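Appendix B, Record 12. Input sequence as logged:
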Amino acid sequence: MSIDTRIQIINKGSETKQVIKFDKEERYKNLLFQMIEIEPDNPRWVAFLSNRAIEALIINEQYEKLICKHLFITNKYSKRIGNLKIHKYTKMLLEKYISYLILWKNYDKANELLKVGLLLYPNNMAFIFFKGMIQIESVKDLSKTYLIRDLKKYIESDKQTLCDSSYRDTQSLELIIAELNELAGKKKMAKKIITEINDDNLKYFWDQWNDNL
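Logged structural output:
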């Protein structure tokens, strides 16, 4: 039997003031840890771990072990779809584990697991987001590697000697360094380098590159 009423229930417990006042994040973290102890084979509690709980587990080097226990048949990382435990919380655990791998810049493993996730859940927005993030981070890392390795000699060299030996101004190489800094996310450094370039042709290149981005 149902009874129609005009009663309206407003839950303010999730408001920031209430969360801080009662330290709810710490309380929820402890409750989740208690449930993991009570039901160690239930993936639900690992799937719903809060950020604070995850941080505590990472510090104690327990998070990856715990998540793999509920995600893989062999209890350790695997890129084989046949080794995946399929249950109600598989998608959530995959999201959390891939996020963890990206956080620690383990892009190869994250990408392998992401392919499995997209096979099972092709329309999952989190997996689509992770795929784009990995691609962006890969470009950044490649840019940093190139900046350090291939242009190190130029950065440490005498600019006047370079200029005299090639009869050209070295600002063209500085434009490359600015663009690499831009790709690596170092926008302030890129802007500083470009500000010091006075060659209009090079500035045109810069504008074209960044308009295309």
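The mean pLDDT is 84.
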